[in-house]
Design a protein that fits this description.
The complex is a heterotrimer of chains A (about 450), B (about 375) and C (about 110). Chain A is an alpha/beta fold. Chain A has 15 helices and 25 strands. Chain A has three domains: about 1-115 and about 255-350, FAD/NAD(P)-binding domain; about 115-255, FAD/NAD(P)-binding domain (3-Layer(bba) Sandwich); about 355-430, BFD-like [2Fe-2S]-binding domain (Arc Repressor Mutant, subunit A). In chain A, the strands form seven sheets. In chain A, strands 3-2-1-7-21 form a five-stranded parallel β-sheet, covered by helices on one side. In chain A, a hairpin with a 4-residue loop joins strand 22 and strand 23. In chain A, helix 1 crosses helix 3 (about 55-70), helix 4 packs parallel to helix 5 (about 155-165) and helix 10 (about 305-320) packs antiparallel against helix 11 (about 330-350). The longest helix of chain A has 24 residues, at about 330-350. In chain A, about 55% of the residues are buried. Chain B has an eight-stranded mixed β-sheet. Chain B folds into two domains: about 5-45 and about 145-210 and about 315-375, FAD/NAD(P)-binding domain; about 85-140 and about 220-305, D-Amino Acid Oxidase, subunit A, domain 2 (D-Amino Acid Oxidase, Chain A, domain 2, 2-Layer Sandwich), CATH 3.30.9. Chain B has about 375 residues and is α+β, with helices and mostly antiparallel strands. Chain C has about 110 residues and is mainly β. Helix content of chain C is about 5%, strand content about 25%. Chain C has one helix and eight strands. Chain C has one helix at about 40-45, and strands at about 10-15, 20-25, 30-35, 50, 60, 75, 80-85, 95. A five-stranded mixed β-sheet of chain C has the order 3-2-8-6-7, covered by helices on one side. Classes of the chains: A alpha/beta (about 450), B alpha+beta (about 375), C mainly beta (about 110). Chains in contact: A-B, A-C, B-C. At the A-C interface, strand 9, helix 4 and strand 10 of A face strand 1, helix 1 and strand 5 of C.
């Protein structure tokens, strides 16, 4: 059995498999286990868990400890990229040497990245994803600038602004594209996790107390500057245009799942209308219709780190069950209940921090949508209308959108909106970009190693 | 709905034929099950090369090459075609002799090639690997973007008055009197006295309907592309070798990415419409690419793709009139080498259909060579 | 020991500065980083950018920091490629933000 990803889902899946006497292989790109939320700092850094993870310090410590305890009982391969998958063989590369690993069961715990919509100027040096801005702080004890501005929507927007404030880099402003009313409307669903809700309100209160401007319902107009970020221009909910000076921007609109391996495995995908995203079809335990392939954590459904831990265990137990092994059904029932509750929370997040579809559609022709290949919104519209592309893969073939190094991770959400708008069809109709190996750049110096 | 000609299959052959038939004043309906140029025409390497084609095909390739130069004038865009040269290199003396002999013979067919000794090769293309001992250069060769080409020709055909129908799946073909009756899913029947089958890997199923089965095999090309790099490699470069695994080729587009292919053919199916790049083939291709171009060891591959190409056992396509059914024509089975000759094939088929004869010899491509397979 | 700057960079160091310094070279100039830095942090903390977009739209300085966006690939002076956000700094590394010279790509065989 193989697990891809050593974040909360992958770590808990490994623990459950090891407990059942199976020695899973755990493939992870990171140097250290932990994933993104519980990312560990380099070994020569000295900050304490409380400084790094705040209210989640206890969880982080427990998770790291649990995974460390698996040493010797799992085949853990850090700094290893799973670059391809075909016919129940996972293809990996470690330090330039490729290997092919045959599997009976594969648990994909591949996590998520920020979901992005382009804003004029977002390719300027000094502009980062919210997740990137958090990693700078957490893993490298750096801020992205002296006066960073955070922009977008989602729970990370406020958490990050608060973390920067606490670390001594108070943000220039927090600009939320979601209207405040949306967050009020989502309260009943968000109340499923009262602690989370309370913390969110606390972040806001602390930021305001520190005199930091928080605006809801903004329309970002441009990130300005010559060779570096100098200001953000936006329109307030009331319709006034404003400009705030800053030297860095962290931006993001909640998250998107990393689903490339599930795609290469041939898993069918479903369109989730609430978020406008596609996700691999799976039952409540993470079983996909493709035999032997399981998905868990934010790579399957965006439910956050707590749910990822539960989903990791659940997927492992499902894999064990499918192998004919006895599992504790009471635990399965408990985990399922937990997942159901957290799914309500996910709906709450989607309501509170909606993806700004309108912003993505309205992006001006000259704005770069695909950072990798510098493909503009106008290029996509030309493919959509002038060259009659009815869906994303055709638009990709004709415009190069999504053809770059990142494989569409950071442009496809917006590209789909632009295409659907240009074609005047519902978002689901333009489909999704098909995954293509290698799922990340693969050096041509790669040599073949062990055989399956 | 009636037209002079119905074309089944909207790849580069069908789209080009539709375009050139319109220029000859014929009314045309082009039926494409998916989107124009989506299958083999769109996924291939994009080589606009004459060098290395068997000599008897050069007249067709020459005719097509002339059209490539005229694309902007004919269809309003260049499809990223650049005549930046085509270079074949080899690793053995024996293969160098073969290239030399070919270059002598090709001259009689109007193709001027330049043999390059090891030193000349090194001087002109210093980045080539030490194992390459000779080259043969065609300054008139080059490459184009296959993803753009057939769709662009299809749009030009539409502008010229062809009835180009995408997502139009043919579910029945019959001959009724002088007309072919073609049933399109959800669109009813279309009629025309002439029918051209340019359905690539699906062409054999249609020819069999008229008692002309062919032994068509399908394979998928193993294509990869690198990250963008400073533009330094002008010509298309390929290894000339009798061994499939050594057969790799690459071209750099002006934007910087390098498109690569070869080493193996992958599995493909014209039933499931799926084709695969084998992970082993990607790694094997890298190994061979490093051999011909050591600098590749420093760059990354960022994407791979395949598609469904059709091959015939003699590596020769099927082109020309049906041997059983008057008014029926074929152009399919281009054996992974149809892109360069595509516009020429369309021009020749249009000439044949419109005038009953063609100035470019195509007798060698007749479907009757497989007549013994008929029931 | 060379001084490390706390304030001149694009990235600002907020702590963990009590680490041994490491010297690298960026576009031929000496840059002092700290052990445990990613290349991205090492270069950005020095005030430089990481790379120039291949398509003429200016300099880039990475984006996601988690190995997903691929917007931080740099060259080494030997012609190699490194992803700055996931590669730890190493003494003596010579980085190049832009591949101009033909000695870099493609290296003559």
């Amino acid at each position: 059995m193989i697990i891809v990803g050593a974040g909360p889902a992958g770590m808990r899946a490994a623990e459950a498999l090891a407990a059942a006497g199976i020695r899973p292989t755990v493939i992870d790109e990171g140097q250290l286990s932990g994933g993104q939320i519980y990312r560990r700092q380099p070994v020569n850094f000295t900050r304490r868990y409380e400084a790094l993870y705040g209210a989640d310090a206890k969880k982080a410590r427990a998770l790291h400890k649990a995974f460390n305890a698996l040493q010797g009982r799992i085949d853990y391969r850090p700094e290893t990229l799973a670059w391809n998958l075909r016919d129940d063989v996972l293809h990996i590369v470690t330090d330039g040497v490729a290997a092919a690993l045959r599997f009976d069961a594969l648990i994909l715990a591949t996590g998520a990245t920020d979901r992005l919509a382009p804003i004029a100027g977002w390719t300027l040096p000094g502009c980062y994803s919210l997740g990137g801005a958090q990693i700078a702080l957490k893993a490298q004890a750096c801020s992205i600038g002296a006066r960073p501005l955070f922009l977008g929507t989602g729970p990370l927007l406020y958490l990050l602004a608060y973390q920067y404030l606490k670390a001594g880099a108070p943000p220039a402003a927090v600009l939320d594209t979601a209207p405040f009313a949306a967050q009020v409307k989502a309260l009943p669903d968000l109340a499923v996790r009262p602690g989370f809700l309370a913390r969110g309100l606390m972040f806001r209160a602390r930021l305001r107390a520190a005199g930091i401007l928080i605006e809801n319902g903004v329309e970002p107009l441009a990130i300005e500057g010559e060779g570096k970020v100098a200001a953000v221009r936006y329109r307030t909910a009331g319709g006034t245009e404003r400009r705030i000076a800053c030297d860095a921007v962290g931006m993001g609109f909640h998250l998107r799942s990393e689903t490339q391996l599930a795609d290469l495995a041939g898993c069918p995908f479903l369109f989730d209308a609430a978020t406008g995203q596609w996700r691999p079809d799976a039952d409540r335990d993470g079983r996909t219709p493709r035999a032997g392939i399981y998905v868990a954590g934010d790579g399957a459904r965006l439910l956050g780190a707590d749910a990822a831990e539960a989903a990791g265990r659940l997927a492992a137990l499902a894999a064990l069950t499918d192998r004919g092994m006895e599992v504790d059904m009471a635990e399965v029932a408990r985990l399922r209940r937990r997942m159901e509750r957290l799914d309500r929370f996910r709906r709450g997040l989607a309501t509170a921090f909606p993806w700004p579809a309108r912003l993505a559609c309205a992006v001006a022709d000259e704005v770069i949508v695909c950072r990798c290949e510098a493909i503009t919104a106008g290029n996509i519209r030309e493919a959509a209308v002038g060259k009659d592309a009815p869906e994303l893969n055709r638009a990709k073939a004709l415009s190069r959108i999504g053809m770059g190094r990142c494989q569409g991770r950071f442009c496809s959400s917006a590209a789909a909106e632009i295409l659907a708008e240009a074609r005047n069809v519902p978002l689901a109709e333009v489909g999704r970009l098909r995954g293509q190996a290698p799922i990340k750049p693969l050096s041509m110096a790669t040599v073949k190693g062990e055989r399956p | 709905m009636q037209a002079d000609i119905i074309i089944v299959g909207g790849g580069i052959m069908g789209a080009s034929a539709a375009f050139f038939l319109r220029r000859r004043g014929k009314s045309v309906i082009l039926l494409e099950r998916g989107l124009v140029g989506q299958q083999a025409s769109g996924v291939n390497f994009g080589n606009v090369r004459r060098q290395g084609r068997y000599l008897q095909q050069l007249p067709l390739a020459n005719r097509s090459r002339a059209i490539w130069d005229r694309l902007p004038e004919l269809i309003g865009e260049d499809c990223e075609f650049v005549a930046s040269g085509h270079l074949r290199v080899c690793y053995t003396r024996e293969q160098a002799d073969k290239m030399e002999a070919y270059s002598q013979d090709a001259r009689d067919y109007g193709l001027d090639l330049e043999m390059l000794s090891s030193n000349a090769l090194r001087a002109r293309f210093p980045y080539l690997g030490r194992e390459t001992i000779a080259g043969c250069y065609d300054p008139s060769g080059g490459h184009a973007n296959p993803r753009l080409t057939a769709p662009a020709i299809g749009r030009a055909a539409r502008r010229a008055g062809a009835d180009v129908r995408e997502e139009a799946e043919v579910v029945g073909i019959a001959k009724a009197g002088d007309d072919f009756v073609v049933e399109v899913k959800g669109q009813g029947e279309l009629r025309a006295p002439m029918l051209l089958i340019t359905a690539g890997a699906w062409g054999g199923k249609l020819s069999a309907l008229f008692g002309e089965p062919v032994p068509l095999a399908v394979h998928g090309p193993q294509m990869t592309v690198t990250e963008p790099l400073p533009y330094r490699i002008a010509p298309t470069i390929g290894v000339s070798t009798p061994h499939l695994h050594e057969t790799v080729y690459f071209r750099q587009v002006k934007r910087g990415n390098i498109i690569c292919g070869g080493f193996a053919r992958g599995p493909a199916s014209n039933e499931t419409n799926r084709a695969t790049v084998l992970p082993e083939a990607i790694l094997g291709q890298m190994e061979q690419l490093r051999r011909v171009m050591p600098g590749f060891a420093n760059v990354s591959t960022i994407r791979s793709w395949s598609g469904i190409e059709s091959y015939l056992p003699d590596d020769v396509p099927i082109m020309g009139p049906s041997a059983t059914t008057p008014g029926l024509y074929y152009a399919f089975g281009f054996c992974g080498a149809g892109f360069q000759i595509g516009p020429g094939v369309g021009d020749v088929m249009a000439e044949l259909i419109a005038t009953g004869a063609t100035t470019t010899p195509i007798a060698q491509y007749g479907i009757s060579r497989f007549a013994s397979l008929a029931p | 020991m060379a001084e490390i700057s706390m304030s001149a960079g694009r990235f600002r160091r907020l702590g963990e500065t009590d680490r041994p310094s490491v010297e690298i070279e960026v576009d031929g100039e000496q840059v002092v980083a700290l052990e445990g830095d990613s290349l991205l942090v090492a270069v950005l903390a020095s005030g430089r950018t990481l790379r120039r977009s291949e398509f003429g739209d200016g300099d880039r300085s990475g984006f996601c920091l988690m190995g997903a966006c691929q917007d931080c690939w740099m060259w080494t002076a030997e012609g190699g490629r490194v992803r700055a956000c996931t590669t730890p700094v190493r003494a003596g590394l010579r980085l190049i933000t832009q591949a101009m010279s033909e000695d870099l790509w493609p290296i003559p065989a």
